[in-house]
Design brief:
Largest sheet: 2 strands, antiparallel
Organism: Actinomadura violacea
Keywords: DNA-binding, Transcription, Transcription regulation
Radius of gyration: 23 Å
DNA-binding region: 41-60
Number of strands: 2
Helix content: 55-70%
Structural class: mainly alpha
Order of helices and strands: HHHHHHHHHHEEH
InterPro entries: Homeodomain-like_sf (IPR009057), HTH-type_TetR-like_transc_reg (IPR050109), HTH_TetR (IPR001647), Tet_transcr_reg_TetR-rel_C_sf (IPR036271), TetR_SbtR-like_C (IPR049445)
Number of helices: 11
Domain HTH tetR-type: 19-78
Strand content: under 5%
């Protein structure tokens, strides 16, 4: 009769295999749901993960349970990012940069797009408590940006959630013929205090001395002194910084 030590030795590899299978299923489901949304069959996910359909069903008895696990994982990574910015300098720039980052991720992920498109998408699709944690983390960024004077005081969390969902949809609509991030940048402009009293006229042709934002193409007023502006605001400046950081180093 095997002793306790041999039973533990036999059980540990099985548990490790189960954990690896679960992670492979989650990763395959993330790719499948991102590409095709919730309509993808579980058999396709099993094939992507390199496991049998029975292994998928042992870990996730329904496709809804698997979708919930994937959305929970995505929301938790977004919440972690928001919390990491909670005490950062330049709260306005961090807030707008976070919105750009979330929209950019969701735009190419059907599953995340579905969850963000609903006012309580996290509560509908993710594990209990995730929606509240997401709203709490986003609300903290919003309040700090408002305290710094970078976001209109009359904006609330529901406004931001609605704009975020709308940006995902409009970015998809303009993806073929517009610069990436343009619709989100325009939405961010609506949140700025200056948007209450000043509306940018984008229909007139730029003058000879007028430049355009390097990210979204918005016309920029000519600089009276010093170097001309390169970006229309903090959100586009943050997006350009992320692109430079992600670009492969030459040499």
């Amino acid at each position: 009769m095997p002793d306790d030590r041999s039973r533990r030795t036999d059980a540990e590899p099985r548990r490790a295999d189960a954990r690896r299978n679960r992670r492979r299923i989650l990763e395959a489901a993330l790719e499948a749901f991102a590409a095709e949304g919730r309509l993808v069959p579980l058999d396709d996910i099993a094939r992507r993960a390199g496991v049998g359909a029975g292994t998928v069903y042992r870990n996730f008895p329904t496709k809804g349970a698997l979708f919930t696990a994937v959305i929970t994982d995505r929301f938790e990574s977004i919440i972690e990012e928001a919390r990491s910015l909670a005490d950062a300098d330049d709260p306005g720039e961090r807030f707008y940069g976070f919105l750009m980052w979330v929209v950019e991720r969701a735009m190419f992920n059907h599953a995340l797009c579905e969850a963000l498109a609903l006012e309580e998408g996290g509560r509908t699709f993710a594990a209990p408590g995730v929606e509240e944690e997401f709203n709490e983390a986003l609300g903290a960024l919003l309040r700090r940006a408002q305290a710094a004077g970078d976001v209109r005081a009359d904006v609330d969390l529901r406004d931001v959630r609605a704009l975020m969902a709308g940006c995902v949809v409009t970015e998809r609509m303009r993806r073929a013929d517009g610069p990436p991030g343009r619709m989100t940048a325009l939405a961010c402009d609506a949140l700025r205090p200056a948007a209450v009293t000043k509306v940018r006229d984008e229909t007139r042709p730029p003058s000879r001395n007028e430049s355009r934002c390097e990210v979204c193409g918005t016309p920029l007023p000519a600089a009276r002194t010093g170097r001309p502006a390169r970006f229309c605001g903090a959100a586009c400046r943050q997006k350009a910084h992320r692109r430079r950081a992600a670009a492969p180093k030459s040499g």
